[in-house]
Amino acid sequence: MINVERWIWPVGIALAVLAAQPAQAADQAKPPAIHKTGKSLKDFVPASWAILMQAQGDLNKDSLPDLAVVIKSAAEDKDEGGGAEAPRLLLILFGAKSGGYALAASSEKAILCKGCGGVFGDPLAKLDIERGALVIEHYGGSSERWGYTHRWRYQGGDFLLIWLTRGATTPGPAPRR
Ligand SMILES: [Ca+2]
Predict the structure, then answer these.
(1) Per-residue pLDDT band at 174 (split at 50, 70, 90)
(2) CA 98–ligand 1 middle distance (angstroms)
(3) Is 23 left (phi over 0), alpha (psi -120 to 50) or beta?
(4) pTM given for the model
(5) Rounded to whole angstroms, how far apart are CA atoms 124 and 122?
């Protein structure tokens, strides 16, 4: 059954919301292959990638702790060659009954690149699991500041965007000192 009226979108599609925001790096290399299962988080982190941020909670309501993890490539820390625009990967790992984790989802569009935040630097402000929902916050800008909060919930086999707040402010005159 195809429901074109669906107003909450599966993760792969909805993340276009973010992609339409401050320029994400143009498609460069293919994202690395991620193991489908592993005993611990490090089994899902490809060689030359590192964990940038992680959160734990129960996303699929099976009482087993799940992980949301942002990983970055070694390229990101190199200022030359557009490293600050290297894509980051969001991994969602569901805790397995037998121990370890299974990869439930991954996205290279959910997380803005290190250099995508303007003068405020790295725009990734928060990754958390709150009341069973995945929360991602970005913040950045220069003369105009912007922020995005995305809340994702796992439902019916998909991650659905249940909440999106965008904010933008233009600062007034500088305060007197
Ligand atoms: Ca779980």
Answers:
(1) low
(2) 13
(3) beta
(4) 0.79
(5) 6
